[in-house]
Write the structure tokens for this entry.
Amino acid sequence: MSTPVDAEQAWADLQRIRVPQERVYDEIERCAFGGTRTTWTTAAIMWVFLASLGFDPPLWGFVLILVAYVGLLLTLAVFANRKSRMRAHHSVYGWRSVATFVAGGAVTGGTVLLSGRLVDWLQLPLGSVVQATLSAGAFVLFIGPANRWAAGSVRGRLEVRR
């Protein structure tokens, strides 16, 4: 009891399914390979935060600056998330996404700490500005290639699942 299958109709059905899936891949890659506005905005917010810590604010001033920094980053994340037209399922993000997040935190945090020690050792007059510039520069240099690396395998990983 086999049902006759029209090969041309089956091919047309397959193409109708494949095209929307290709759009999902394209959207994920577009978000990873383009859109440097969010990266530069994040770096600018980080620069202002680190440079403002050079004024040695009191505890309440530090807490106020920290709350403003976290609030601006959260607002930026919300706007960047709304900009994307398609959302990938959470299972699409694998170990590369986690590795990129952890490595980004390590690189940025390490740069902040090491540049802070360097500034203290050299006793620079505007040390917080130097520290902020080095840290924001390391962030910008790391985030682009890391995002492309993390999203580069999404198309291949999703095609294997089909």
